[in-house]
Amino acid sequence: xxxxxxIHQASKTLKESNIASHQLDAEIILSNIMxxxxxxxxxxxxxxxxxxxxxxxxxxxxxxxxxxPVAYITGTKEFxxxxxxxxxxxxVPRPETELLIYKLISLYKNKKINILDIGTxxxxxxxxxxxxxxxxxxxxxxxxxxxxxxxxFNAKKMKLLNRTKLKVIDLKNFYSTKYDLIVSNPPYIPxxxxxxxxxxxxxxxxxxALNGGNDGLDIIKKVIYKSKCLLKxxxxxxxxxxxxxxxxxxxxxxxxxxxxxxxEIDYNNNVRCIITxxx
Length: 279
What we know:
The chain is of the alpha/beta class.
């Protein structure tokens, strides 16, 4: 079958199931199966594809019809210009999280620092920072062993294992020398709001990495309290937060002797990241 017709049919099928990104999804999935770029598909749309490719494609499209995220179907997600391996044991990295990376790189460029990433998941935050900060080393923590397996795979793929430690441990049981920078994208969605998430997220992404407790602040509080012991004086704590949590989190930080030095606004004009220093 001709490549252009194959994509068109898949896109139409996805559209009929109310998947807004139907055309993009159809192209990304096929480019992944064929191990080519989307640009290649567009400029070579008159090519024939094999029956084997067509069958793999139909199977993948059926998964997308069930609202499975494209990143889990392809097994990768681009973040900070790197393709991170992801699966259902890790969250899919979001573009908004890149805002945190931009700010921290500007603060620590060419500095020799030690970084702690709490709730590292796929390792996208820690490994992106280490990729840019050549003098830095870092540790990633997660309570999910299979998430740490993914992070280790990504560290190896990015040739960063020599500067990275990845540990399966609950934050309350973690003790260490002190860090210059602590980063965290903790679970921050209130439990009652989990049911309102899109099917892509609610049915496929790990809820343990999303559930922030009754008010969405349970894990954020733990990160702030524990970081007092783990962060050097004058060090930086950078946390990603949810919508409408800014004022409450800032109060928590102030009450625990942190001073805000910056915040990052996401594409919907919400405060997404708070950057503070330990006084």
